[in-house]
UniProtKB/TrEMBL annotation, chain A:
Pfam families: Glyoxalase
Species, as recorded: Chitinophaga oryzae
Name by which UniProt lists this protein: VOC family protein
Lineage, top ranks: Bacteria, Pseudomonadati, Bacteroidota, Chitinophagia, Chitinophagales
Coiled coil feature spans: none
Every VOC domain range: 4-135
UniProt cross-references to PANTHER family, sorted A to Z: GLYOXALASE/BLEOMYCIN RESISTANCE PROTEIN/DIOXYGENASE (PTHR36437), GLYOXALASE_BLEOMYCIN RESISTANCE PROTEIN_DIOXYGENASE (PTHR36437:SF2)
Length: 144, 154
């Protein structure tokens, strides 16, 4: 029986820049930063109040997994903003929006009332996008 | 200036005296001030003054945005920074004083309360983990990722 998701990926273009974005701007906590040879690290972060979920900031580089053509294709798609990486929740979306904006995070949509709650959309430093919502709007069926 | 109220069907609706966005910007500025000056002697009264709020109003708004009072938030930032310093092999005293605590006893007590173990035990545990990571880094990476990167041990 599967119980939880513990590790998932975010494909990033540059690990140093991703570290700065996720740790210094979004406020995620660094879990692992282990050198794995030249220019590559095992780099994982967790949302501040969710230590049992690690996001691997996975570099797109030519490797066993990504032949040159695949890596090039993936980099193009990430830059185009094709990949949505999920929904992040916060206590107060207006305060979070103002804080992230003050830190230079690029928003594609300001906090907007939708039928499911108030939502904003922002991009990470690579081009991946996230939905930001208030936690109150994300509680349906969680308490069954 | 006082809030203005409209009487509609026996319910008083309080209309904010300034647009909400300014309110949020002020609270966020106070939070960012704490983030940037946690190591200094911060006078939270001054932050409220600079934000043009009464102290009570400021604390209430800050808490509604961040779930903590400014004082609780400052303490949590200091302890979080101290954790980072201990992971970087700083001594307990160095960590304590560089994040703005004046007393080692206060620091150790608060650290234990928030983190669940004493600063020295936390530092020792991380030192041991760092040693293991440097000796056998692949033991800390799920093998599917190591395989994708071609990091498998020879």
């Amino acid at each position: 029986m599967i119980t939880k998701m513990t590790i998932t990926n975010i494909h990033v273009l540059d690990q140093d820049s991703a570290y700065d974005f996720y740790v210094n701007k979004l406020g995620f906590k660094l879990v692992d930063d282990i050198p794995m040879g030249p220019d590559t690290r095992w780099l994982t972060v967790s949302p501040p109040e969710q230590p049992d979920l690690q996001l691997v900031l996975f570099p797109v580089k030519v490797s066993k997994m990504f032949p040159q053509e695949t890596a090039d294709m993936l980099i193009t798609l990430i830059k185009q903003g094709v990949f949505g990486c999920g929904v992040l929740t916060c206590k107060d979306i207006f305060a979070t929006y103002e804080e992230l904006k003050a830190k230079g995070v690029e928003f594609m949509k300001p906090p907007t009332k939708e039928f499911y709650g108030t939502e904003a959309l922002f991009k990470d430093d690579s081009g991946n996008y996230f939905s930001l919502q208030t936690i109150d709007n994300f509680s349906h069926e969680n308490n069954i | 200036m006082s809030n203005t109220g409209k009487k509609i069907e026996d319910k008083t609706i309080v209309v904010p005296e300034y647009p909400r966005v300014y309110l949020y910007i002020r609270i966020v500025q106070a939070k960012l001030f704490i983030d940037n000056h946690y190591a200094d002697e911060i006078d939270l009264e001054n932050i409220a003054d600079e934000a043009y709020f009464s102290r009570f109003h400021f604390i209430r708004l800050f808490r509604s945005a961040y779930g903590k009072t400014p004082h609780q938030y400052l303490k949590s930032v200091r302890i979080e920074k101290a954790r980072q310093l201990l992971k970087e092999d700083k001594t307990v005293a160095e960590a304590c004083f560089s994040v703005g605590f004046q007393s080692l006893t206060t620091f150790s007590g608060l650290f234990k309360k928030i983190v669940g173990e004493s600063p020295s035990s936390y530092a020792a545990r991380h030192k041991e983990m760092k040693k293991q990571i440097s000796e056998k880094p692949l033991a800390f990476v799920p093998s599917c990722y190591a395989y994708q990167h071609g990091w498998l041990e020879k």
